[in-house]
Amino acid sequence: MNKKETAEIKKQFTPANCAATRICGCYVDGEKNKVTRFREAFLSLPEEEIFKYFEIFRKTLSGTLGKNLLNMEFPLETEKEGGTQEFLLRLRDSGLQDEELLEEYYDKVIDSFTYGENYLILLIHAAYDVPGKASDNLEMFDASDEVYQFIISCVCPVNLAKPALSYNPEEHCFQNRIRDWIVDLPMLGFLFPAFNDRSSDIHSLLYYSKNPEDLHFDFTDSLLGCTLPLTAKDQKEVFQELIEETLGDSCDYQVVREIHDNLHELAEEKKDSPDPVMLSQAEVRNLLSISGVDEEKLENFDRNFEAAAGENASFMASNIMNSRKFEVKTPDVTIQVSPDRADLVERRIIDGRPCLVIPITDQVQVNGITVKNDAVQRED
C-alpha cells in the first residue's frame, strides 16, 4: 500500500465516511488472563466512544511507510488450511460474529505477544464501498468497483492514570482524583487484507508498530506468519556496511559524496510519488556504478549484498539516506550542511595534509555572534 491508499482507508474512520460494522475487544491483565470481552455493532456505541475508537484505529494506519508502517506478504504455505493467512481470512469473512473464532484469535495474540502489563486487544470489521474513478482521476461515488471488506486489529496498553488533585464541583473543593485505567494508543496493529491498487489483496497486509525499532518479531511470526523486513535503523547500518566492504580501500570522501548526491537526486525525482522509493540489489549496484565505483570492486558486490542484507532484500531510500543534512564527522569536529549543498565541503591537500575546506561568506556566526572574515575586513 502507498500513502494515498493508506489515507483513503483512514478516511473511513470519520463520522462522514464510517465503514465500520462491528467492534470486538478483549481486556488482558499482566498475568495473561482474559478479564473481560465485548462485541458490539459499531454504530450502536455512544458517540463519545465512537470518536475515541476512530482515533485508535486511525493511529494504527499512521506513520511512515517503511519505518513503522510495513507492507508484508504472506508466504504461500500460510494460505493453506490451518495457516495464518487462512485463519485471518476466515476471521474477516465471519464479520467478527463467530465467538469461537474470536476466542481463538485472542488466544493467539496472548500467546504471541510478550508484555508484562495490562492491555486491550481490539478488532474491527468494516465494509468500504470503493468508488470508481473516471479518466480524469475524479471519484465516481455512484459507480462502485467493489466492496472492500477488511479487519483492523491492534493492541493498546491499559495504564493507571497518574495521581493528581482534581476539583469536586459538588463539594467545592480540591481532592485526590480517583485513578482510572486508561486505554492508550496502540503499540502495534495491522490491516488485513491490504488495499493495494485500491482493491482487496488477500495475499498481503499492512503492519503498524509504534516503535519502528521494536517490530515485535514473535507477534508477526506466530500470529501473522509474515517475514519482517529489516528495521529502518538496520537498513541504514547494513547499507553503510555494504558500502564499506564493497569499496574497501577505495572508500574515500569523493565516492561517498557521489553516492549521497545520487541518492538525493533519486529521491527528489520521485518525491511526488505516493510510493516509497525502493532500491533492489540491482538498483543499489547501479547506484554504486554511476557514483564512480570501479567494476573490479563491484565484482564482490552481489556476494556482499546477500551476506549483509539477505536474498531478495531491498532498501528504502529514505531509510539509508539523511534527507535533512549532509554530515562529515571526525572525533573532534562535525560538519553539517543542507543535503543538496554537499558540494560546499571539499577535500584538499594543504601543506601535505588532507583537509576539509568550506568556503564562507560575510554571514558567519560564532556562538551566535556575527563576525567578519578577513576578506570583509580588508574591503572595509
Brief sketch in words of this structure:
By secondary structure, the protein is an alpha+beta fold.
The number of strands is 20
- Give the fraction of residues assigned to helices: 25-40%
- Overall pLDDT level: 87
Strand content: 25-35%
Distance between the termini: 60 Å
Note the main sheet.
Answer: 8 strands, antiparallel
Overall radius of gyration: 27 Å
Protein described:
The chain has 380 residues and is α+β, with helices and mostly antiparallel strands. It is built from 12 helices and 20 strands. The strands form 7 sheets. Strands 1, 2, 3, 4, 5, 8, 9 and 12 form an 8-stranded antiparallel β-sheet that branches. A two-stranded antiparallel ribbon has the order 6-7. A two-stranded antiparallel ribbon has the order 10-11. A hairpin with a 5-residue loop joins strand 1 and strand 2.
List the helices and strands and how they pair.
Blueprint: H1 3-10, E1 20-28, E2 34-41, H2 47-59, E3 69-73, H3 84-93, H4 99-112, E4 119-133, E5 139-160, E6 165-168, E7 173-176, E8 181-183, E9 188-192, E10 194-196, E11 199-201, E12 204-209, H5 217-224, H6 232-247, H7 253-269, E13 278-279, H8 281-290, H9 295-298, H10 301-308, E14 315-316, H11 317-320, E15 326-329, E16 334-337, E17 346-350, E18 353-357, E19 364-366, E20 369-371, H12 374-379
Helix pairs in contact: 6-10
